[in-house]
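Issue 218. Parser rejects a valid record. Input:
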Amino acid sequence: MIVIPAIDLRGGRCVRLFRGDPTAETVYDADPVAVARGFEAEGARRLHVVDLDAALGSGSNRDVVVAICRNVAIPVQLGGGIRSVESVQRALADGAERAILGTGAILDPGLVADAVRRFGDRIAVAVDVRGHELALRGWRDRGPRVEEAIRTLCDAGAPRLVVTSVQRDGTMDGPDLSLYERVLAMTDLPVIASGGVRKAEDVRALRDLGLEGVVVGKALYAGTLRLSEVVRG
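Output the parser choked on:
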């Protein structure tokens, strides 16, 4: 299982939100490129970059994303506000190796089919879960039930899913293992988990479930987890 450090961008800075709440922001670094290079130096094999401003419809960090992609040799998967084929094309042209479709994929499965037809395995779909439903549009709106959404995405040909537990995101309360067990029982697609990781034992518990990867953010910034402990996990 691959461990993927997260870099969340807002206002050009590296931040973390608590359960996706834009009013509960912690700024960790004013130089996201340096953060990206640091993760690479520590052994990261991939980066998970999210443009929060784009996700929230409040702006764009495109220039920072381009700078990150140009300054690391490892692949970058990019999410946040990618809701059309045009935005996928732009993300890949900017240097991302993989584009993560969000709300648009849930509301329009045809977008997933079209994107996959054009870009193949360079597409992933974000499945952001709050309770038994998906959270859409920067986690502000309610979406369909998890089972319905995953069934629809599978039918549309999604290559992989990035599943986030909204209630665990940024909390370091431990991952929602039951959520990932449920999702893995619904699909044979590769699944990347996100949300709640605090320590190496959390990563190992996720690995034992058979997940393809796990996105880790706050634990790395807060120092409760070192990438060197799990980079080979």
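Fixed in the parser; the record now loads. Residues 2-230 form a domain with the TIM Barrel fold (CATH 3.20.20.70).
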